[in-house]
Design goal:
The complex is a heterodimer. By secondary structure, chain A is mainly alpha-helical. Helix content of chain A is 34%, strand content 6%. A three-stranded antiparallel sheet of chain A has the order 1-2-3, with no helix packed on it. Chain A is globular. Chain B is mostly beta strands. In chain B, strand 6 and strand 7 form a beta hairpin. Classes of the chains: A mainly alpha, B mainly beta. Chain B: Keywords: Repeat, WD repeat. Chain B: PP2A consists of a common heterodimeric core enzyme, composed of a 36 kDa catalytic subunit (subunit C) and a 65 kDa constant regulatory subunit (PR65 or subunit A), that associates with a variety of regulatory subunits.
């Protein structure tokens, strides 16, 4: 657990600073200092964890309760499971329990009732399996994701992706609320499943006509060589976002970069040229462009 | 050894180096080391030069003047190089100097930059030959036909000349940056350590070395730690330790196997979870490891503390000293200005009762292990009158600042003391600021 005095805003600036350091180290006299870059990568990883956690907590807070509930009800008809909301503290246990669990589980998604219009829903194709909440009107517990490791049953299930990078689960299935396409990201490779017929009934509560493109982060730890990585990056698309509440002015592409620096030292040594490209062009040049990464863990 | 167990006071003796505040990068001192008798004091700088100071012999018996050191020899040890294959410039900065025990009239030291280790012979010449048969006094060759008689050349006294000559060059054995060298107690071998590997050399053989530790993972993406320092045990020629960026120390026995990847002992203190922050990994990285002279303990330095380990206890240090705990809340700023990556060294005194390490604002700290006392002193030009007693300094971490205290925000983080050395037998210390070398001795009553 990162000390509470380091908040998410610091995480963003730390990520920027760290990336600049890595970028600058390439031109420093004496060659790349392995030790220093390794330490910087640790800061990057820590900041990324906090950033993602805070980010998805934010997403939760802004989700409209009814939208989720509507979808939940739809889902419930298909897959009536007994679901509980869990705290962040239980996340760890849930993850490990999840990963070892044989049966498929859908973690509960719950959020505080923030009455945001559907138009502002920003979760990129995240679908939450929902508990059939009895009262259905409130959920006092904080909302956190729980990751699931599920066998890829083709349709009619939905997973969540965890806010924390997690080595155990390496499959994430998401449902695009616009196109009703169920997509599984497995070890960084994309599988597009067929449309989920059963979920069409959730149309009514769908996002507005505004088209959203989806960007998938890749699990770099399993990507062996640069060619795979480049392919994965090509799948990444930019996404526009209309959130006025959030101010990420100098953190464009941070999400993308977070996904690049998957775990540990990944993405640093063998990805120097890509990093330079990203750093120089995307991070430094493009401001105000939104990118959304789904960390597939 | 001189000095009572009570309140030891330190006096200024000398300062070496340029006075002006504009520091030339080449003059930045990068290593300081006394030889085994303490008579010689060597410094290395970023420009690849080695400067050796010698203790003034006439003053040795005068207690208050025994710490006078004068320049003995200066030479260019390493030059900048270029690795054409990797398109990398190799810095000439001297990372470490280690003296060999003296065997004859000459002195020998090892100096290393990032890639190459050199063995230097420092010898004195105080006589020169005169009266050659075939040569004139100025060196021109005589016409052989003009020689009518033979004579034996004689050696006549001359002004002392100290010559440094490279006797061995140990090159091309390290892919990564060399951070440590350590001479074995067998006086025949030494080790050199870079980020991922440790090599064992014979001092006589330059064209090969044995790799004894290799922590490079098969896939560099899985790299999680690097070697930060290594040292041979002072008495056991088969034992050495190396520290890592993860805060662990591994003790290895070369008799166990040829490749010492598997340690004999692993020294590690579990992390305090309440102190977890973004920078936990950085501040736990060990920047220096030093055996005590008696070989029973070792000391490690990480960013905020000094730890003393008993070689027989692996699970935690026996003593921990906070060097500048007030910096813990400033780690974010220190990360931004790169200060958090500073590699502080540490050293023992001759009888292992006191340890010393540097800090910022040209402060350095001493911890008396027996007395459980510590002191903060400052190396500055303002306190450099001859034999001026150093006043203990105090940093105010927060709240009301008392008189003479310095607040944390006033500390100058550009003035850092990374390298310190303690005379092996006496209470004389050498403290390197950015480009100056300060020599202090204990107060003689």
């Amino acid at each position: 657990m990162i000390s509470t005095m380091e908040c998410a805003a610091d995480a963003q600036s730390l990520i920027s600073i760290s990336l600049m350091k890595i970028h600058n180290s390439r031109t420093q006299r004496g060659g790349i200092k392995l030790h220093k870059n390794l330490l910087v990568s640790y800061v990057l990883r820590n900041a990324r964890q906090v950033y993602i956690k805070e980010k998805y907590a934010e997403i939760y807070r802004m989700q409209q309760y009814e939208e989720v509930m509507t979808v939940c009800n739809e889902i419930q008809e298909l897959n009536p499971l007994d679901l509980d909301a869990e705290d962040a503290e239980d996340e760890e246990q849930a993850r490990s329990a999840c990963c070892s669990a044989e049966e498929s589980l859908c973690g509960a998604a719950c959020h505080r009732g923030a009455a945001q219009p559907v138009a502002h829903a920003r979760t990129a194709s995240a679908l939450f399996g929902c508990s059939p909440l009895e009262d259905g009107s409130k959920e006092p517990d904080p909302c956190y994701y729980r990751s699931c490791c599920m066998e890829p049953s083709p349709v009619s299930h939905c997973d969540q992706f965890t806010a924390n990078s997690n080595m155990h689960c390496n499959k994430t299935t998401v449902l695009d609320l616009d196109t009703h396409v169920v997509t599984t990201v497995e070890n960084g490779y994309l599988h597009q499943d067929c449309c989920c017929d059963a979920l069409q009934c959730g149309q009514g509560a769908q996002s507005p006509a505004r088209k959203r493109k989806v960007e998938f982060g890749c699990c770099v730890s399993d990507v062996e060589d640069v060619s795979d990585f480049t392919a994965a990056r090509k799948r990444a698309k930019r996404e526009d976002c209309c959130y006025s509440n959030l101010d990420y002015t100098d953190t464009s592409n941070i999400s993308n970069l977070i996904s690049i620096f998957g775990s540990g030292f990944s993405g640093l040594l063998s990805r120097q040229s890509d990093l330079e490209q990203i750093c120089s062009k995307q991070v430094l040049a493009s401001l105000g462009a939104w990118t959304r990464a789904i960390v597939a863990f | 050894m001189a000095g009572p167990g009570g309140d030891m006071q330190w006096c200024f003796s000398q300062v070496k180096g340029a006075i002006d505040d504009d520091v030339a990068e080449a003059d930045i001192i990068s290593t300081v080391e006394f030889n085994h008798t303490g008579e010689l004091l060597a410094t290395g700088d970023k420009g690849g030069r080695v400067v050796i100071f010698q203790q003034e012999i006439e003053n040795k018996n005068l207690p208050q003047f025994r710490s006078e050191y004068n320049v003995y020899s200066t030479f260019q040890s390493h030059e900048p190089e270029f690795d054409y294959l990797k398109s990398l410039e190799i810095e000439e900065k001297i990372n470490k100097i280690r003296w060999l025990p003296q065997k004859n009239a000459a002195q020998f030291l090892l100096s290393t930059n990032d890639k190459t280790i050199k063995l230097w012979k420092i010898s004195e010449r105080d006589k020169r030959p005169e009266g050659y048969n075939l040569k004139e006094e100025d060196g021109r060759y005589k016409d052989p036909n003009s020689i009518t008689s033979l004579r034996v050349p004689v050696l006549i006294p001359m002004d002392l000349m100290v010559e440094a000559s490279p006797r061995r060059v140990f090159a091309n054995a390290h892919t990564y940056h060399i951070n440590s060298i350590s001479v074995n107690s067998d006086e025949e071998t030494y080790l050199s350590a870079d980020d991922l590997r440790i090599n064992l050399w014979n001092l006589e053989i330059t064209d090969r070395s044995f790799n004894i530790v290799d922590i490079k993972p098969a896939n560099m993406e899985e790299l999680t730690e690097v070697i930060t320092a290594a040292e041979f045990h002072p008495h056991q020629c088969n034992t050495f330790v190396y520290s890592s960026s993860k805060g662990t120390i591994r003790l290895c026995d070369m008799r166990a196997s040829a490749l010492c990847d598997k340690q004999s002992k692993l020294f590690e203190e579990p992390e305090d979870p309440s102190n977890r922050s973004f920078f936990s990994e950085i501040i736990s990285s060990i920047s220096d490891v030093k055996f005590s002279h008696n070989g029973r303990y070792m000391m490690t330095r990480d960013y905020l503390s000094v730890k003393i380990w008993d070689l027989n206890m692996e699970n935690r240090p026996v003593e921990t000293y906070q060097v500048h705990e007030y910096l813990r809340s400033k780690l974010c700023s220190l990360y931004e200005n790169d200060c958090i990556f500073d590699k502080f060294e540490c050293c023992w005194n001759g009888n292992d009762s006191v340890v010393m390490t540097g800090s910022y604002n040209n402060f350095f700290r001493m911890f008396d292990r027996g007395q459980r006392r510590d002191v903060t002193l400052e190396a500055s030009r303002e306190n450099s009158k001859p034999m001026q007693v150093l006043k203990p300094r105090k940093v105010c971490a927060g709240g009301k600042r008392k008189k003479d205290e310095i607040s944390v925000d006033s500390l100058d983080f550009n003035k850092k003391i990374l390298h310190t050395a303690w005379h092996p037998q006496d209470n004389i210390i050498a403290v390197a600021t950015t480009n100056n070398l300060y020599i202090f001795q204990d107060k003689v009553n």
